């Protein structure tokens, strides 16, 4: 009897186990993400999804949770991030996934808040990020050609993409493993570039798609702005508006991978803003025309810390006029108005995914899009495309007021619960408020312009391209050469100065003659310094400090763009006429002395001779290092340095590189914000003549309670003693 019951319970267990396995398998199959022409299908359900870009290295890990929580409260379903190859693999085969680069930790936090992930692996990302996300060493792999049907490139790209996918799988992060990733991107906006690569471009794009699909992630892949994306890869749209967009096959959903909430800035450029009415209108237009996935680029832009900004000239702030500002604070009315939009669309979700719209004209500029079915109920979008006239329309025997350039959403085909142009939220004002913090004990150290030829320099006949020499170990490269001047030269006796012309490919040049500054110029590609210089009888030394301000991040073959002193270098006004110095012997020195002795890292900051005093700090000398100490202010308000008294350079706090600053390049091209109801005038500008970026984010988590070390390297000349620490307060 007992034996019998034991064996029957064994049977029972086996059957249970079998049932469990079948159910588990069913569940796994069920968890995969697929799509049809209407939308992504998750757990068997069509979904209308809102997503927002938050790039993990553009904030600090202690900020991540707050940002994600705000994204969730703002009505987002997903977070979108690029993966930044150059921070993860700084040298071939050496990986870094720590701190701000801890991708897995970031994604697990997103999962903790019940949000999905769109992982844009690229690995080309554009993103205003240094070199578009490619490590600089990649350029120097023999035979390399980026984003091309090129053996070395494809090997390296596949290795990195595989590495990320394997990491995601081993952490169980794909949706079919119970993880948050529902979508992945390969490449980025290749369609526009591919023409420059001819048939090879097409072969590469095809290869990239197949390679990605072959990694069997269980979630769909997208290629943004790539009309030729081969099945099953979905081609998607990026832009200010995307309602006109159709995927390349009728069975693919209409996905908007970058709905631009504002725009980025270059040093010297105006500040960009996009009115929320216009974004909301663009999103509603997209949804009414059958769109089902919208990602806001950016939802939180953040900060280009260190030398991560692309370029040239992308600012350290990547605020983007996003719904969450650079400092992690909510920007109103952008945040709440979009939240209301999401609610209205979510109320219409069943109707939207279940039916195709019936479109009827309600007037010359007015239309009704009605989504109606027995399974999904009825939702309607009433639109007024006139850019400055409000109208009253009649829909199903009821009257509706439609402001210009707006859409009303009726989740039950009756009640107008939201209109894109009716903003019921008060605008927030952000202020930078003084803190009680004193920045004390200023000390300075002048970069040595006299002894640039030492053990760490080398010579070469002719001019070398800058990146080929620095490999981006530093922004700075010294080019030095000598010119002997006979005492009989006429200009010495006539009070004339010879003219020096220096041809460069960018981005900034500071010219010194015999250790004395002759001038500076800034610009991209064709950049020329021209000026009279003081030469004396005997040997004269011309030293040019060439400065990179962010490596290019877009354009076909961007890796072949030159920077630095590329020539010609010509001296005019000598008795022999003009003298071409380009093919002389030049000596090269990578980086600054201050960098070499690691002034930027706290421990070795004592290894040069600092001179103390506020007076020294205020002397406005070029190429000067400044150091001071401060205690962290009380409270939790985000912090920033006000650098309006400075010119151009870099800042470090406790050894962490805050980023490049450039306050002497004031923004031009200012105009008023004239939101005319179209996207014609989206540059709402203010503060004409002010620096594009005056404040530089200091993450709280980089500070100790007391004795924080601030190091500033100033290229042009500034008054460091007037630098102050401010807090950001939003009302
Ligand atoms: C897009 C690109 C993004 C970003 C954006 C501008 O074209 O895909 O990575 O560069 O432009 O912010």
UniProtKB/TrEMBL annotation:
Gene Ontology biological-process annotations: carbohydrate metabolic process
PROSITE patterns noted in UniProt: GLYCOSYL_HYDROL_F35 (PS01182)
Domain Beta-galactosidase galactose-binding intervals: 623-708
Family indicated by similarity: Belongs to the glycosyl hydrolase 35 family.
InterPro entries (UniProt xref): BetaGal_gal-bd, Galactose-bd-like_sf, GH, GHD, Gly_Hdrlase_35_cat, Glyco_hydro_35_CS, Glycoside_Hdrlase_35
Species the sequence originates in: Oldenlandia corymbosa var. corymbosa
Residue span(s) of domain Glycoside hydrolase 35 catalytic: 39-344
Keyword Signal: yes
Protein name listed in UniProt: Beta-galactosidase
Top-tier EC class: hydrolase
Entry's Gene Ontology molecular function annotations: beta-galactosidase activity
Signal peptide segment: 1-31
Domain Beta-galactosidase beta-sandwich: 367-423
One family name in Pfam for this protein: Glyco_hydro_35
Keyword terms, alphabetized: Glycosidase, Hydrolase, Signal
